[in-house]
Amino acid sequence: MSANQTQPSATYDSAFLKACRREPVPHTPVWFMRQAGRSLPEYRKVREGIPMLESCMRPELVTEITLQPVRRHGVDAAIFFSDIVVPLKAIGVDLDIKPGVGPVVERPVRSRADLDRLRDLTPEDVPYVTEAIGMLTRELGSTPLIGFAGAPFTLASYLVEGGPSRTYENAKAMMYGDPELWADLLDRLADITAGFLKVQIEAGVSAVQLFDSWAGALAPVDYRRSVLPASAKVFQAVAGYGVPRIHFGVGTGELLGLMGEAGADVVGVDWRVPLDEAARRVGPGKALQGNLDPTVLFASTEAVEAKTREVLDAAAGLEGHVFNLGHGVMPATDPDALTRLVDYVHTRTAR
To answer: Phi, psi at residue 202, to the nearest 5°?
Structure first.
């Protein structure tokens, strides 16, 4: 496909893609971050005994896991089952996803010499991604498939810290103390991330989301100086494909305007900022995605519906709105609560 491909016709008129393009929709589209995963008993069954990274590299398994929430919940989009560290593993970074911990990097990136281990990613590095997306788009038909990648800052945090962190002291020490090395690291990661998204788009995904999960740890002045250029490079690299680009972070209320500035078409909002206020911070010309607090799903159906109405009311004046949670589905969530939520949003917003 050329770099200025049009959307695949089967999904072009879907409610999800219309909302991303800020066009009128038949109902507010719904999908959930982490909709494919531990909240589903069928997911736990097919993943039994298979390590996380290995499961991301088996196309038949990826296809089944990606389809499970579409079948069960009737969501308006599928999200490709993978992990943000998959491209790093694919280019030879020695890392593993440890149960109960998360990604752990054997040799953290701390010096300029370490940058040499981060080579560009090619489609040949991730043939299983191309194969799985081909299988999925055939199965999904008119339901869009969302591809994704981790943003340069979040990937850099894992690489420099050597694993998950609450304080990011090593990453921030590099950012403040060796800004040139930091900038070169993020620029290298921007190229790898853009390469990973291009593979997914060329294989047939209808939209992409950049997860900057840990960007909320930053002050706006540091985000603008030390992170925004790399994220903007990723969005610019895939701009020519014409697929909607979504940008999401957690705890990023102070950064919403800057995240929009980085170049996304849709800005994801966590539950801490109401969508009407988020729209003011992001400014015109962007759709918004969000933003029900995922813990609300542990409350009664009446409480879920009341909080959902608050989200929909706050979104009433938006140019485009994709309903989602303010972060991922939590593992102990009752799947039936998600199914009821999809139905409630569809019914309440039917036009």
So the answer is: -70, -25
